[in-house]
Design goal:
By secondary structure, the protein is mainly alpha-helical. It contains three helices and no strands.
Length: 58
């Protein structure tokens, strides 16, 4: 998958949507018990990513 995404395009993707998508898939497969919203609320900290995006916009 990483080879298919051109360098620099990662800035266009929303990290929260990505975490929600994969958490939902793992929940459906029975690999995790928590739902996507709980995982996002308890297991993510977007401050670093938001600051990085802000600096790169320049």
């Amino acid at each position: 998958m990483l080879k298919e995404i051109p360098y620099g395009r990662w800035r266009q993707y929303d990290a929260q949507d990505t975490v929600r998508f994969f958490a939902l898939r793992l929940n459906e497969a029975g690999m995790i018990k928590s739902g996507p919203q709980k995982i996002i609320a308890q297991g993510t900290d977007w401050r670093f990513l938001n600051e990085l995006k802000r600096e790169l916009k320049g």
